[in-house]
UniProtKB/TrEMBL annotation:
Protein species of origin: Microbacterium suwonense
Protein name: DNA-binding response regulator
Entry superkingdom: Bacteria
Gene3D superfamilies: 3.40.50.2300
InterPro entries: CheY-like_superfamily, NreC/VraR/RcsB-like_REC, Sig_transdc_resp-reg_C-effctor, Sig_transdc_resp-reg_receiver, Tscrpt_reg_LuxR_C, WalR-like
Response regulatory domain residues: 2-118
């Protein structure tokens, strides 16, 4: 399996290089230090799996994931990041990533995730899975599925959140100030009694506004 590593931290790239070198099932074919370099690196090295950091200067890992899958839809992207919040995971998974690992994963877990992703499986760190479950329980109350009606713009915001867009990207897409988008999200949270992006998406799915 051919692997491309994308991370702006040299120490992380060095560690991943060592992990991959220690397993004969995987081969490191290239590295990129920024999301803007990803497509060029993919075109040059033809990876099967891309290990993708999320927070990078310039082009984020979420946008870089979209670019990789536009370049080659069959390529598999596994996010490897320090973020442990479920909405961060949901952003990159909605962008098309098939995996989400936190950087405290062991070398064996990282290699296993690469192998599983290449086989077509979805891999998510256990702590993130647990957060998903808790958020789902909190967000979906089967006894009271109805929720207050949103404005047309707020419905648009919900749909764009479900597509994995950041506040900045939503503001650009709707041609509003980012502060307006943040205010809309706060209002949605208040009306629906939810606390974060994942819960917004789960509630919208329960209400039939979107389909997961």
């Amino acid at each position: 399996m051919r692997v491309l590593v994308v991370d702006d931290e040299a120490l992380v790239r060095h560690a991943l290089r060592a992990f991959i070198a220690g397993d004969d099932r995987v081969t490191l074919v290239g590295e990129a230090m920024d999301g803007s370099e990803v497509v060029e690196a993919c075109s040059r090295t033809s990876p099967d799996v891309v290990l993708m950091d999320i927070k990078m200067p310039g082009v984020s890992g979420v946008e870089a994931t979209r670019r990789v899958l536009k370049w080659k839809p069959s390529c598999r992207v596994v996010a490897l990041t320090t973020f442990t919040t479920e909405w961060r995971a949901l952003e990159v998974l909605h962008a098309g990533a098939c995996g989400y690992l936190v950087k405290n994963s062991t070398p064996d877990e990282i290699i296993a995730a690469i192998v599983a992703a290449h086989a077509g499986d979805r891999v998510v760190s256990p702590e993130i899975q647990e957060r998903f479950v808790h958020s789902a329980i909190e967000a979906v109350d089967e006894r009271s599925p109805e929720a207050p009606t949103l404005s047309d713009r707020e419905y648009q915001v919900v749909e764009l959140i479900a597509k994995g867009l950041s506040n900045t990207e939503i503001a650009e897409g709707l041609h509003y100030a980012e502060a307006t988008v943040k205010a809309d999200i706060r209002h949605i949270n208040h009306l629906w009694g939810v606390e974060n992006r994942l819960q917004i998406i789960l509630r919208a799915n329960a209400l039939g506004i979107i389909s997961l």
